[in-house]
Amino acid sequence: MATPEDPVAARSRARLIGSAARRFVVILVLVVVGTAICSLLIGLALGASVSRGVSLGFYLVGSFLLISGFFVGNRGPVRVKGDPGFGMFGIFKDRRLRWASGAEQVESMSLSLVFVALGIALIALGVAADARYSLV
Q1: Which of 81, 102, 103, 132 maximizes the CB count within 10 A of its CB?
Q2: Which positions ≥6 away from 52 have C-beta within 8 Å?
Q3: pLDDT tens-digit profile of 70-116?
Q4: What is the DSSP letter of 47?
Q5: Segments of the chain assigned E as strands
Q6: Measured between alpha carbons, how far is 30 from 39 in angstroms, rounded to an integer?
Q7: 85-94 burial by CB neighbour count: b if 16+ within 10 A, else e?
Q8: How far apart are the first and last CA of the chain?
Q9: What is the rounded CA–CA span in Å between residue 118 and residue 108?
Q10: What is the pTM of this model?
Q11: DSSP character at residue 100
């Protein structure tokens, strides 16, 4: 097992964190650009100013991502086993349950963190883009 002082492990960890940060920045840029374009078009179609349309778009998508992150992070440790099948009126016919593995729980918490971080970043960009208020 590698110790924290091991230079190979330190380089590997730094490489891992660098690639994770790069992926997060790519996702952030894609979400910001997509949100800005869509909200700009919708805002102009509704007669709002550019800054107002973009800031409202950032607020709405950021709030949605924050709420999504909350619900993804609060998902319980029980999962449906296999295909549950559907009975009459959409009620589950055969509901077999299983406990989520440790990897599934870590993935759920990591996804929650990504959603919350993206939401906070978009809301901060919405505050910066809102021309009604001065930041200084």
Answers
A1: 81
A2: 43, 130, 131, 132
A3: 999 888 888 777 765 565 555 655 667 888 888 888 899 999 999 99
A4: T
A5: 78-80, 97-99
A6: 14
A7: eeeeeeeeee
A8: 51
A9: 16
A10: 0.79
A11: P
For residue 92, list its beta bridge partners: 86
Task: Using a pLDDT cut of 70, give the percent of the chain over it.
Answer: 86
Beta bridge partners of 80: 97
pLDDT in tens, 30-51: 999 999 999 999 999 999 999 9
Helix (H) or strand (E) holding 38: helix 7-45
Q: Report the run of H or E that residue 61 belongs to, with start and end.
A: helix 50-73
Map out the domains of the chain as residue ranges.
Answer: 7-129
> What residue has token string 């997060």?
24
Name the one residue in this structure whose structure tokens are 């992070």. Answer: 73
From CA 2, how far away is CA 11, in angstroms rounded? 12
Are 122 and 62 in contact by the 8 Å Cβ rule? The answer is yes
φ and ψ of 66, to 5 deg: -65, -45
- Please check whether residue 130 is in contact with residue 52, taking contact to mean a CB–CB distance below 8 angstroms: yes
